[in-house]
Design goal:
alpha/beta; globular; 14 helices; Aspartate Aminotransferase, domain 2; Aspartate Aminotransferase, domain 1; transferase; 375 residues; 2 domains; four-stranded antiparallel sheet; 38% helix
Amino acid sequence: MSKLPNVTTSIFTVMSKMAAEYNAINLSQGFPNFPVDERLTDILARLSKENVHQYTPMAGYPPLMNKIARLTFDSYKRIINPELELLVTAGATQGIFTTILALVKEKDEVIILDPSYDSYESPVLLCNAKPVRVALNDDYTPNWDRIEKACSAKTKLMIINNPHNPTGKILTENDFIQLKNLLEKYPDITILSDEVYEYITFEEKHISAHTKDFLLDRCVMVSSFGKSFHITGWKIGYTIAPEHLMKEIKKVHQFLVFSVNSISQFAINEYLDIVDVNLLGKFYQEKRDYFQKLLQNSRFELKPCEGTYFQVASYATISNEDDVTFCKNLIIDHGVAAIPISTFYSDHKDQKLIRFCFAKDDFTLESASEKLCQI
């Protein structure tokens, strides 16, 4: 009997496979197609000939952990103890999975805000716990009344994603006020804050959970070097949590992967000395603005994008098809792959919205936009 009977092939795999079959331009999966910084690949090439190929300590390569602690302070003025409050993970998804397995017990409840990343629910189910999916408002702001009504004495974890995938929204100061009020009523709830797009924000910087004193003792932060440095295939991220939570997370981590790929840790440790993460927002804002300009004469209605490298678009004036069918036909008939937003909802709510990834080189964006503007 399957432990995940309702889990099928992910929509990302489906759309990327179709894109390959039909030789379509792939704006579906969230990965960049432009070159990695040569400074990083040069570091990697040199290190490949050095003695960096054996296990690192379970929690991570100590010099890298110290650099992450410094990055956290420089970015958010938060002081962490890297030995006790930090864990290098095999990608952010492993950090999320490990955290949920460590902190959620059978019959616990976990609040997940829809539309949501598909890797949140499965580890909850594997814990024999209950995922409680709560829809955001139609403008993708949190509905705190609805969220509070979904909480109970059984609620042990709430997952927030900021900046938000797939919508590109960022939480406001008022959202954190509402969250603080809710947590005062439910002192047993821990927050899992997925902030993998933390350095990819535009007009406004996102407000990190790192900056909120009321969260520091009851929040697990998940970050991604893969997203920040355009190296998604390296599968390396990190998790920050107070010592009492990190002790439990490390217990699971040591039996899941034990330690993360050594050479990537050594390479990123050196790269952090020369890279400026604060330039990422400007870099991706230029791509967002260019993509939006290319589509301004299309029939798609582009929704606000405050962060991430995703652009949500409505096709309501183009077709009455459901969004999954529309995306499949978009590949077959027009040669562009996107992701249907309904697949991020537990009830597959269809609002005639799709998601494009604009983390692509200009030629790819231009070629895709030319096709999209012909629809």
